[in-house]
Amino acid sequence: MTKKEEIIRELYPEDKFGYAEKLTLGELEVLQHARKIIEEEIRPVINDHWERAKFPFEAFYKLKEAGIMDSPKLFEDREITNKWKASEMYNAFLYYELARFDASIATFYTVHGGLGYNTLLIGGSDEQIEEIAPKLRSFEWQTCFALTEPDHGSDIAGSMGKILSL
Fold this sequence. Notes:
The chain contains seven helices and no strands. Helix 4 packs antiparallel against helix 5. About 20% of the residues are buried.
């Protein structure tokens, strides 16, 4: 059994369709390291943070040690179409890894790595990407997201009632 097969068996025994086989060895090693940090650094503090309605920033930022956005391993042994972005398959497994542990951790990263970072890559100039992307990938800077819903807000029941009465 190859190292890649061993890591897949360890991390994703539930993957009956074999999607993890599409990951490179480097991507799997980053995911394996991320899981170790989740278990050793974030799991011990998450319940206390939940009770205090706080986000475990210090523990979460230890994931940068795994290089979840900027490890060179994410770009080895695959066709590089964008030097700033890991493969979509890797990102899907990273989100899965985070969400299987805690939805708030996954959401926080999805806003940063998905909404914020991808917005820069899609809409930023080459100069902006060169300057800002490394700071986002290393978590030196953190993105955020704000949503406004004029005349609706997140009042689903009230807004739905208005829509249904039309």
